[in-house]
Amino acid sequence: MKPALTRMLLASAASLLFIAAPALADKIRIGSPYQTSTLDPMRSAAAGSIETFGQLYSRLLRIDEAGQLAPGLAETWEVSEDGKIITLTLRDAKFSNGEPITAEDVVFSLLRVRDTPDSAYPAPIQTLDTAEAVDASTVKLTLKHAFAPFLGNLEVFNAGIVSKADVEARGEAAFVENVVTSGPYMVEAWIPNDRLIIAPNPNYWRTGFPKNEGAELIEIPAATTRVSMLLSGELDVVRDVPWSQVAEVTANPGYAMPMEPSTVVYVGLLNHARPPFDNIAVRQAAAMALDTAAIAQAVTFGAAKPANSTIPNTLKYYDPDLKVNGFDPAAAKAMIDSSGYDGSELTILVSESAESEQQAVLMQALWAQIGLKAKIEKADAGTFWSRLTSGDYDATPTWYYNETTDPDLAVRWALCGACGNNAYYTFYANPEVDKLVEQGAAELDETKRAAIYAEMQRITTTEVSQIPIYYPPFANAYSTALHGLGMTPALQWTLEGATLDK
Amino acid sequence: MHYLTFIGRRLLHIVPVLIGISLVSFLLVMLVPGDPVRLVLGPRATDDAVAAMREAWGLDRSLLSQYLTYVGNVVQGNLGDSLKYRLPVWDLIAQYLPRTAFLIGYVLAMTVPVTVLLAVTAARREGDWPDQVIRLLSVLGMTIPVFWLAVIFARLFGIQLGWFPVSGYGEGFLGHLHHLFLPAVSTSLWLAPVLTRNLRGALVQQMDADYVAACRAKGLPERLIFRRHILPNSVLPTLNLLGVMIAFLIGGSVVVEIVYAVPGLGALMIGAVLGRDYFVIQGLTLVYALVTVLVTLVIDLLTAAIDPRTVG
Amino acid sequence: MSVISIRNLSVTFPGDAGPVQAVKDVSFDLEEGEILGIVGESGSGKSVTCRAMLGLLPRRATLGGRILHHGQDLTQPAAMQAARGRDIAMIFQNPASHLDPLMTIGDQVAEPLIFHFGMSRAEARAEALKLLDAVQIRDAAGRMSAYPHQLSGGMKQRVLIATALACRPKLLLADEPTTALDVTVQAEILALLKTLNRERNLTMALVSHDLGVIAEICHRVIVMRQGEIVESGRLRDLVHAPKHDYTRLLITSQPGRLPQMTDQRPDSAPLIELRDLSLHFPGKGDKVVRAVDGVSLSVRQGECLAIVGESGSGKSTVARAVIGLNAPTGGDILYEGRSVVGLKGEALTAFRRKVQMVFQSPFDSLNPRMSIQRTIAEPLWRHGLATKAEAMDRALELMDMVELPRSLAGRRPGMLSGGQCQRVGIARALALSPRVLIADEVTSALDVTIQAQILKLLTRLRKEQDLTVIYISHDLTVVRKFCDRVAVFRTGQLVESGTTAEVYADPKAAYTRDLIAAAPDLDQALAGVT
Amino acid sequence: MTETSAINLPARDRPRLKKGTIELAIGVLIVGAWILAAAGAGIVAPADPNALDLAAVLAPPGPAHLMGTDNLGRDILSRVIHGARIDIWMGFIGVLAPLCIGVLVGLVSGYYGGMTDTILMRLVDITVAFPFFILVIAIVGLLGPGLANYFVALGLVAWVAYARLVRAEVLVVKRLEFVQAAKALGFPDRAILFRHVLPNVLGSITIYAWTDAVMVILAGASLGFLGLGAQPPTAEWGVMISDGQPYIVQAWWICFFPGLAMVTLSLGFILISDGLSRRLRVSQ
Fold first, then answer.
1. Which of these, A189, A369, C420, D64, is most buried using a 10 Å CB contact count?
2. Any idea where this protein resides (chain B) (predicted)?
């Protein structure tokens, strides 16, 4: 009796030990510091969620491998002569639950982003006046006025198409369990604060895609841990390898770091609303004191390119020849001395990221050389954003990126004083620039647009709306067993075309 | 009978503590600067969107009314929804509680035998070289920052030697053991010295106790005296410290959770604190407090079971 | 035939200022069936000698000489391990700390039986029950599963004796076995030891500081001082013809041999009156501890009143109530006819200047971190009676008064002897020139020779300062010599009171008679034992 | 402490061995050396701890920089020496603030008992129920990073240990006769508490405080790791270690030397604590 009992106990213990693991072996494991905080494309405009939305929800248009606008859910589209009416014809596509994707769904998705009060980022389709389902597969979008970047904006992460029927039926729950998706993948499991596991969507409209078994998007806040995991074979892809570890990773033949161009720009924001940076001479001196080449070298070990303009260098109409307020400490010192700056200490606000902290330290040291005294105040993200938005700072090194290669969203965010965000909370407000922003958006002629944006860059860089620091590439590391995976400037993984060697 | 009254009294004792805790955890979060909404919606969110969400979540109401709603919900077993994930807080906690519990269990399973072995060895050879070596090692163990050790371990055992995974929770019991090995060792290396010092001290003190002399006078051999008399009497203070340490680990495991990418309650808490996810912070502090209170209760009951004097 | 022979035993401890020799070249024999008394003051090496016989010295002690037992030298660990517990057993002064608090007493008594005789647990417990019966523990069967903290002090000592007797040893070492116990319990334990000696032919060595106790049961006595044997022989011979000065001093310091120090003043007016005084405290659960219960008593101006009783009699509680340290729960306390219960602020401060107290423990009653001069001076300046500097000067005068050399002024209590500390305590109490001095067991922790000095000092001060003294004590022999009137307490109640002469000559209450009978007294013992 | 009646020698003759003297001496030596280095940092340190030298980043230890330089070309040796100021200060204030609060609460609670005691101890229960580290993280995370807020957090949380310790000791000491004597002599409560009770409970508190200082420094370092530590460019060891982590392969010296400094200082603290406790014969 006794031995039998023992055997039974042992057997049940053994079965406990070897509970079959879900077959995750073939998934591409992507480690990123950024979190998926919601599966509803309208709900967040934060990194992490942005990447996720792209994999779950198809947009009307997509950016192809060459970076050009290509058909997405919309097979064809027509723009009216005055640029105000866009008519799109949908292809025969289905949601992951097998229901067809109709013009109704498109109209619902776009208006939801535009009209919901707490929609995170309605800006890209703000110019949309009406959207109308002409028939099941035809959508007619009417703009308030001609708006050049609109087509590009239809590719932005939150313009993904969701199921009207499902969302109306289930409300927020539609984005928690059994999420209906229109993109290449659907949700296999979501463990908030840990990882999102996605599996191919069998109903995805692009035949032959995705070319892999899905992916695990794993959230790993500690940078050294991400690298350790990569090197020990626990990850296939790492987003944001610390610059200091780039050499170590690339020295290993099993990994590649292509340093894809990004639309990220690091800028030193200055608070124009209070002394001393309300004084243009002080701002110019501050800009000229910063040896951006040395900063880029010290912080990124030369991976990033020193910045010369207030907008990212990968955007259309970026002006590579702009050269104002270049590094000149002697001139900067002279300007400070004659500027009337009273010598009072200013505050460099910095959020807790190693990169920003180093920039702050360098900023502080370089400014000290021209007699601009500063102290650094580190703040966690919550405090950082409330202090930034309320203008409770003098300077802060930070960054932004642009969702599209069109500069419209970038200048509205970073340079425009009348577009709702006080020019990235610098409280820089130049009516001329504001006017140029609207002109640039409405102008359909390429050369004229180029001239408008060049002018805008010249004015803002000269007036130092903010100090451009450097343009970093994406420091992503890929296992050489992976093929075809990369990141677009708009923070989207080209995941659907990637394959993983066994 | 006595024992039951004792338990009853201890349980009753918890009520005012819990009320205090709910109030403190609420105020802690509410009175402090930082805006959760901006973090949830992302930097590009418009001010209108931020205001709309604040209203939707009742964050614009008076503190008292928010507290009453909160307590009302908690009493019904509802910890509220996460601002960030829009999921019930309890679901989030339930997801991570087993991980942290497993990690702590693992740490204890690793630490306690080692502690007893080292402390007994040191105490029995008090002043001799094994004692000196153990004391030196335990002092060193206490002074090395856990995260530093963790980074080195990940490098050495994970990457160089490839013996253990440097991240994750693994699948199945053995998988958990395998994946959590490095986090557990890193924690143990700090915990074992603390406990060893305490137990050794108690043993050394008890070895001088009068009843030990009485046992010797009875002619009992040292080994027997040690096992039957000195050890049980010495274990009590260490048991108490162990309780404190378990409570500490529930939150203190956050460092290894982050270094080894095993998100548990600690990582959830850090995320919630930095993201100002009010209801998650409140829910977690309540759960933490509850667990702490329960651990203390268990330790008290164990103490009472060992020491007849506690029950009276 | 000797059971044990000590030859040239010396014990050395390492100390701050070089090694300290606690026992120097001590030799003696213990004959089968005899009870040997080892007497001496604290620090005389008597306990160390006793512990050395069982190998119970701390590891840092170094041992010289030989301890021979049946041809084996017990200074060798193997021989010692074979002998102890089986042939030689020991009981200790503080029974409470010598029992493992986490083990039932049944198991503790059974333990040596299991180990030495290989008995099963059940057998051993059965035997243990017999042993507990043999040491006269009531309801022994019920007590088997009790824990030490549930027993009284006397009970614990009986348990220790039972444990010691478990393996039927030939020699029992008893290290101050009754010092921590009440007199009546002490008498019972001594009687028990005597019975065991007679019935089991058990050889014993009894270590004690109290010649009275030794005299009760010992056949032969060794007097030790500063680690050496100064004299030994039959007790009667020793008492009648002491050869050594120290022995002489020891004998003359015996309370029974002290001069009469009373100062009868029968007609003086009452200074303090207790009226139906009660102090009840909440106990475990719903029980109420009636520490003092309906006591009425008066203390007359200038007299010395003794409050006598055993532990738990409420004698100290009464004293603490008088001085306002414990609030009465019923009744009243009058000082010069006015109630002093519930006094606050100035009135309380003023009253406290009038009534002062000296405490039992010489070391614990002084702040170990304060020099004795400061300690004595503190009441003066705290009460605003002098500046700090004046108070410090006055402290020196007070030291003269209690016969403390001024050279000690800067020392802390830890560097003083017990007797000196007690003098500091008295000086501090007298600093405020009180009218009443409450002395709570002030000599119970002191050696007899020192006790005699302190009593002499108190007698002198009493006359000089015209003090009224309340003397709390368990020692009836001292009280008889020192106090004018006596009040006997038992479990919170006043049993009997009257002039000392009357009460001793003709005790009314049975309890008083028991107390008087139980008090060990050298001369009575000698007369009785012969 | 259990009552020991081991051998009836008077207290002063009881063989009080100078146990722990060696530990104490080494501990004092180490801590003393660090304090000296910290006090004279301006003289001892070869360079300005915050001076950047972008021409000499990640220089390995050598004659020019004995402990090498970090990624911004700052001299590690100078940063370690100046860091001693921060970390010793951190240990000092981080212990002193909770100690003062805790001692006060413990004294009052233990001495007066009754309702005061009940209320204060309930407060202690509530504070204890929050896991220490979590509460510190919460407070620092919510108030913002930096040493000042760390101290606030410690002050709010860590006093509990002292309060309990002191209360337990006071309960013993207040029964001692010299305290009773002080009461009987009509001394004011304040005098009794601070002149008679406090000096006699300080021993075990001191012993605990030294070990606590190590906890404070280590927990502070962990906060640095979590991004909640000292403000840049302050040379604080924990922050230096955590900032140096990514360079552990490329430039091991960046986090090794501050780590070594932290271990030695902590070692000094613990040795002092050990030495004291062995001398005063108090168990930890």
1. C420
2. Cell membrane
pLDDT at B33 over 70: no
Task: Provide DSSP, A106-119.
Answer: HHHHHHHHHH-TT-
Mean pLDDT taken over chain D: 83
Taking CB atoms and an 8 Å cutoff, what residues of chain D touch C363? 11
How many residues are listed for chain A in this entry?
Answer: 502
The secondary element (H helix, E strand) that includes residue C466 is: none
What pLDDT digit, counting tens, does each position of C372-397 carry?
999 999 999 898 888 999 999 999 99
Give SS3 for B113. Answer: helix
3-class SS of residue B286:
helix
Q: What percent of chain A has pLDDT over 70?
A: 95
Residue with tokens 């802690």: B28
Q: Measured between CB atoms, does B175 come within 8 Å of chain C?
A: no
B264 vs A131: CA distance, rounded Å: 45
State phi, psi for A488 to the nearest 5 degrees: -80, 160
CB < 8 Å to D139, chain B: 28
Region at A161 (left for phi over 0; alpha for psi -120 to 50; beta for the rest) = beta
Q: What does the pLDDT read at residue A5? A: 47
Antiparallel, parallel or unpaired: β A28-32 and A237-238: parallel
Structure tokens at B206: 């008890």
Alpha-carbon span C52 to C6, nearest angstrom: 10
Indicate the SS3 state at residue A470: strand
Q: Which two tokens stand for residue B254?
A: 């956050």
What's the one-letter identity of residue A324? V
Q: State the Cα–Cα distance between residues D201 and A2, nearest whole angstrom.
A: 59
CA distances for D251 relative to A248, C108, C330, D59, D221, angstroms: 11, 63, 80, 8, 20
For residue range D223-236, what is the model confidence (pLDDT) as tens digits?
888 777 788 888 88
Q: Mean pLDDT across chain C, nearest whole number?
A: 88
> In 3-state terms, what secondary structure has residue C369?
coil
Q: Which residue has the tokens 């094994």?
A: B130
Q: What is the ipTM of this complex?
A: 0.81
Distance, CA of B92 to CA of B94 (rounded, Å): 5
C85 touches chain B (CB under 8 A): yes
Describe the crossing of helices D76-112 and D159-173 by its angle, rounded to 10 degrees: 40
Stated pTM of the model: 0.83
Residue B248 belongs to domain spanning: 101-276
| Bridge partners (DSSP) listed for residue A467 | A268
Please give the Cα distance from A397 to A351 (Å, whole number): 9
Contact C176 D8 (CB under 8 A): yes
Helices and strands in chain D: count of H runs, count of E runs:
12, 0
A237 or D125, which is more confident? A237
A269 touches chain D (CB under 8 A): no
D59-67's contacts with Cβ under 8 Å and 24+ in sequence apart are D60/D251, D60/D253, D61/D253, D67/D253, D67/D257
State the best of D48, D57, D69, D71 to mutate against chain A, taking most chain A CBs within 10 Å.
D71
pLDDT band for position B32 (cuts 50, 70, 90): low
Beta bridge partners of C173: C90, C205
Contacts of D38 (CB under 8 A, 6+ apart): D81, D82, D84, D85, D88
- Name the nearest CA neighbour of D123 among D160, D166, D171: D160
Candidate from D2, D6, D176 with C-beta closest to C364: D176
Please provide the size of chain B in residues.
312
CATH of the structural domain D17-47+62-283, one choice from 1.10.3720.10, 3.40.30.10, 1.10.8.60, 3.90.1560.10 = 1.10.3720.10
Considering only CB atoms, D249 lies closest to which of A248, A362, A375, namely A248
What residues have CB less than 8 Å from C430, skipping those under 6 apart?
C356, C398, C401, C402, C437, C461, C465
Question: Domain segments of chain D: what residues?
Answer: 17-47+62-283
In a domain, B4, yes or no: no
